[in-house]
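=== RUN LOG ===
request id: a7f3
mode: sequence -> structure
chains: 1
length: 146
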Amino acid sequence: MKLRDELPALTGATAWLNSREIKKDELIGNKPVLIHFWSVSCDLCKRSIPRIQKLRNIYKDDLAVIAVHMPRSEKDLDMDLIKQTAAANKMTEPVFVDGEEKLTKAFANRQVPSFYLFDAGGSLRYLQKGSGNVQMLKNRLERLVK
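=== RESULT ===
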C-alpha cells in the first residue's frame, strides 16, 4: 500500500477475537483507523503491543484500532497460542486472525510489526514498518484526531 490508498475490505478472517466481524463500512466516516499487523512469533511485535495499547487507551473515543494477526510460520497458525498471546498482552481491541493471509495480501504487507493509519474517510495517511518510533505514529494520529 502507499499513501492515499483506500482501506481494503476486512474480509477473509479465519477468526475474530474480542469482536464480531467488522465491516469496512462500519469504520469509514467515523474516526481514524489504526490497523496493526503482528505475529505470535515476533518479539518486536510483543515489545510494540504495549505502546499500541497505550495509544488505544489515550484515544479510545477518537480512534478505531484493529489488530491483524499475520502468520509467519506453521506454528503461528495455532489458535490457542494466538488467543493466549493476545490475552497476555491485554489486547482488548478486535483481532482479525489472518490464517489464510487474505488481508495481508490486500495490504501487500510483508513485515511485522506494521502500522497503517487511515483517516476517517478511509484514506491511508501514515505507514510504519518495524517497531520503530511509536512517537511518529502518535504525532500523525494527533493531527488526524484534531
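=== NOTES ===
The mean pLDDT is 93.
Residues 15-145 form a domain with the Glutaredoxin fold (CATH 3.40.30.10).
=== END ===
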